[in-house]
Every structure is written in structure tokens, then in C-alpha cells.
TrEMBL record:
<feature type="region of interest" description="Disordered">
    <location>
        <begin position="1"/>
        <end position="35"/>
    </location>
</feature>
<feature type="compositionally biased region" description="Basic residues">
    <location>
        <begin position="1"/>
        <end position="11"/>
    </location>
</feature>
<protein>
    <submittedName>
        <fullName>Benzoyl-CoA reductase/2-hydroxyglutaryl-CoA dehydratase subunit, BcrC/BadD/HgdB</fullName>
    </submittedName>
</protein>
Amino acid sequence: MTKPSSNRKKATSAASNNLKATARSAEDIFDPENPATATITVTAAEVEELSEMEERDRLHLERRVERAFFEAGKALAQLRDRRLYRSTHKTFEEYCRSRFGYTHRHVNYLIAASNVVDNIIMGTNGSQNEISDETATNGSQNEISDEMGTNGSQILPTSERQVRPLTKLEPSQQQEVWRQAVEQAGGKVPPARIVKDVVQRIMERTQVPNTYQIGEVCQILAKDNPELRGKGGCWGIVARVNDFSCTVKSWDGEYTVGLQHLKSYNYLPAECEQMRVICDRINRVYSSGLEESVQKFLEMLGKLNRAYLTELEEKVLSLLESEFGYEM
């Protein structure tokens, strides 16, 4: 016995051409003795089309959502660099925490992410094509060109987490990683997982052997790494050698730093030992709790590019040690 065919009407909807959607059956007529004569009444509901202006507004609003992290990063960088917080707060960190509820780390992530997006734009367009500072300052994103949208010819990040793995790479590497990640995502905005995987493969392929030795004195290069903000130019003593990083002891604690963010001073063994002693002395006094002016002095010693203290620096440090009961 041949089973009677069942025809099912499938409801479809496409935003591009605003097709009419099919509604559920409003009235069914069915004769159990003669199934072939069954009648299904179908009503159609019309999808309201958007006007040209509404389509344009929708596109602008979608892009504002996508680029919210980018605009935040650019604005925060201006607030920091121009010190526009100085009338109400002593430090930028206090201002961001009070005004936006942002931690210091989150602010650095946003600023670093906006720099990465600039690099991606530069790599795709062949020239710097940033969103203008005027746009960022005025808070309007309706002036962003269509070519920069994820709906246009260029696929750009839509969240800070997508580009966070890129901050540890050079600009040219950032551009290459993003291109590969977009390809793997099928020409769409890639999730952070795909970006992280591509970054890991590139780092493993281009990684050079770790040639640093315990006790070696190195300079920290902050570059665009938000986690090293404030440490650029500081020196540290290598305390542990890892596969792709070193743990260095600085004047205010220990930090794990990638090889790309370290530069050896090439000091002689005797000079390295002398700097180790100085580091221990500074660290011991700094952890005792000091006035801000005294902290600044120790921070200055933490950025010396010579393997010794001047006579005056030695006297001041010795005075601080005696103040807290420390003796050489």
C-alpha cells in the first residue's frame, strides 16, 4: 500500500528581500473516509519592510554595538594621555574605578584592544585608517565608513576578548593571525577560541630558544602588553627560566615576562651579583610601607641602566634601611 504523500509548506524569511512569512493553518477540513480530499487553509502574514532610513539606522546601530569596546579603548587612551581626570582624581586608575567601575587591568585591556584593531585596519587597507579622534571624542559612530564594518568588505573584531590574545604579538603578526582566524571562521567574525588557537600555533612556530640564565639582569619592554604597564624600562633579575618566558624579580616583586618583552643588559657576572644585592635591598625597603615621595625614589632606582648606585643614592638607600631597622 502506497503511503499518501505529505506536503508541508515551509515558512521562510529573508531580511535582504523582506519575503512574506507563512502563518500557521487557520482552518483545516479533513474527511477520514477520503484523506485525499483533505483541505488545509493557510493564511499569510506580511513582514513589515524597513524604510531606507530605517535600514541605514539599523546598520549604524549594529556597528555601534560591535565597536563599543573599540570606542571605549580610544576614549580611555585620550582621557589618560591628556590627563582629563586631573580636576577630580589624583590618578587615572582612581578615576576609572570611580567613574566607570573599571579595574586597572580592564582599562589596559580595552586600550590595548583598540590599538590591535588599528593595526588590523592598517594591514587590510594598506594604510592607517583609524576612526578619527574627533569621532571618538564626540561619541558619534555614524561617521564610520561602510568599508570598516563587519557587514562590509572588512571583517573586524566585535569584542575585546577576541583580540586579547593578539596583544602579545607584533603588529604584522596581529594582522596575519586575524586574517587566518577569519578564514577559519568561514569569512565571519571569529570567536576568541579560534584567535587564541592561531596565536598559539604562530608562537610555537616562531619561538626562539630561551637563552636567558638565572641571575642575568634584563630590561622589561612593556610594548603593547597591558599587564606590563608601568614596568617599561625597569630592570629585573632572572629568577626562573621557562620555555617561552622568564620569571624576573624586580624592585617591587616577581613577574613572569615573555621572551619578546625582555632585553639583556649583558652585564658581567660580578655586575649581575651587584644588581641582585641592590634589588634585594630595594625590595625589602619598598615592602615596608612608605610615603609616596620615598616610593618614587625607589621606583627611580628600579629603572637604572647602570650596574651601581651613585654615592648619594647609596646614602639615601642606607638611610631608609636604617629607618626601618634593616642593616647591610
